[in-house]
Amino acid sequence: MRHFPAGVTIITLDSEAGPVGFTATSFASISLDPPLVSFNIAHTSSSIRALHAADSLVIHFLGEHQQHLAQRFARSADQRFADRSLWTKLDTHEPVLHGTPLWLRVVVDQLIPIGDHTLVIGLVTRVHDETGDEPAAAPLLYHNGRYYRPTPLDG
Residues in domain Flavin reductase like (predicted)? Predict the structure, then answer.
């Protein structure tokens, strides 16, 4: 599956032990009515226990300029939130990353064990979109073990 390019997201949530987050490339939109989205998390992930205890989370859509965040949240868990200048908490307590113009707050609807992963289905309760009428930043892509910036095709 590493030969199929994917957009890069960071999932963040609050836990009793503090903020939890991880990089994910398995995001998908499922339904418009109700607004449902999904992603997968490995059963071996250091974040799996906190995710199973969470009621809600935030999905950040990374732009091409945010590779540093994707790499930070793919590292060991203790380094992900070490730089307090990169994030704050919503009034609902989920951590949210600064400089991410598009993110979704999601209530966990279903956790479905599938193979060596859990499929997370969430109901979107809030959409934060700072882009307004401006074109959104180009997305950060992941393909075959590397990050990429998309190049538009002319024609």
Answer: 1-149
Structure tokens at 58: 């935030």
Q: Cβ of 146: how many Cβ atoms within 10 Å?
A: 9
Q: What is the DSSP string of the chain?
A: -TTS-EE-EEEEEEETTEEEEEEES--EEEETTTTEEEEEEETT-TTHHHHHH-SEEEEEEPBTT-HHHHHHTTS-HHHHT--GGGEEE-TTS-EEETT-SEEEEEEEEEEEEETTEEEEEEEEEEEEETTTTSPPPPBPEEETTEEE---PPP-
Segment 81-123, tens digit of pLDDT: 999 999 999 999 999 999 888 999 999 999 999 999 999 999 9
- Please, what's the largest Cα pairwise distance for the chain? 52
**CATH code linked to domain 6-26+46-103+129-147:** 2.30.110.10
Model pTM greater than 0.85?
yes
CA 69, CA 66: separation in Å to the nearest integer?
Answer: 5
